[in-house]
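My current task is to audit a protein record that another person submitted. Thanks in advance; the entry in question is below:
***
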Amino acid sequence: MAMLGKRRPTRAPSGVSGLQGRQEHNRKPSAAEEQDILDVRGLAHDGRGVARTIQGKTVFIEGALPGERVKVAVHRTRKRFDEAHVRELLLASPERVAPPCPHFERCGGCDLQHLTLPAQRRHKQAVLEELLGRQGITPGVSPELLAGAGEDYRRRARLGVKVNADGGIHLGFRARHSHRLVDIDACTVLVPALEALLVPLHQLLAELEAPRQVGHLELLESDQGAVVVVRQLRDHPGDARRWQAFASVHGVHLARWLGREAAEFAWLTPAPALSCRVSGPDGSLTLGFAPGDFLQANAEVNDLMVRTALSWLAPLAAGERVLDLFAGVGNFSLPLAAAGARVTAVEGNPAMVARLGDNARANASGRGLEVEARQADLSGPAAVRDLLQDVAPAVVVLDPPREGAEAVSRALVEHPVARLLYISCDPATLARDAAHLVHGGYRIRRMAVADMFVHTSHLESMLLFEYHGSARQSQGGSSDG
């Protein structure tokens, strides 16, 4: 408990952080050992080192960095490549650092903590450019970087709960490439208010009469304080009272999803009106949300993305029509409306559509926001075509889930708009959709990589497109053509 909520002292870089074994620079390997010694030439999109065997076969190596020489053990053989992990680090990269998290070697959450922060971010910028290049797109502009703090940034997380056959309680994140849980008592990326709950939550789970009925826990930070949402398979009144006592002692809001299939949501403490803030052109805006609504995990980087969107799209003429697709609870819709646009915000989840409308009304005082909230299924091109014809927007903002927005992109080629801002949480699907747009007459004007999940290989990105006509060729060397 003495370390609860505090950072463990950072270890001096050792050159072997996150690895087992020793550096032995002077020992000459045997001929057999040389078959397992590889020089790492690059970093894959998922953060693994990339090397080639003497025979030319590609090997993806967990825990290895470019420029390193490593002895590896292959744990999976495939036809075109092998997957391996480091057995011994023979030559370390100067960009290798000691991971700040004590759980790094086991936890699957942060896979790049052994790489310096600047190098992580350069890697993410390079990934975006490479994936666009694979689609034949040369934007002619370099990705800007939107980055915040390296620790204490994550305001939402899901923790798994498992009870062993012997009754042992486990609370934590999944191990790499496994369903096994890694117990955690500290997390360098969680905001302090959530990290401080880890040890008390583990203690509470051990005191429950029916801990096996707990599936997982969701932790959220809001302007009203920390929120704990329990996924409970069956009701247990005694344990419900224990959860309520926990909430009272720790000053948190408590809710639960009860049931296996059609789970029902209910607050176990007085229901709060949860909200968070996001920047607008004339001050912050308040976004109400509920557990289960989409909320960006990194508030600081999300704010940078909103500010970037306002900057890239400026100036917006008074009353200019903007169509915001996959709008959520209004993360981009409200700031754009506050900048003077007339926004039609479309979201598939009816509950979030209702909250989006409530948020627009709550922030309208003194601003005169024009936001129309609509519900629509955006997975098919017909619905998107109808929206484009009905709204006739000059600007489209697109913030889809990981599967991207291929149907929307195809519809935007058939019914082009002057400007399109595409916000993506998956660079591969973004590159696929960008190819449709570029071949359909759009050109990339601005690019940015947002380091939403620091110390992981995951990246968010933003592309601003402008329509230049019906040219059916890939974007070439300059974006000004």
The two ends are 61 Å apart (CA to CA). The longest helix spans residues 117-134.
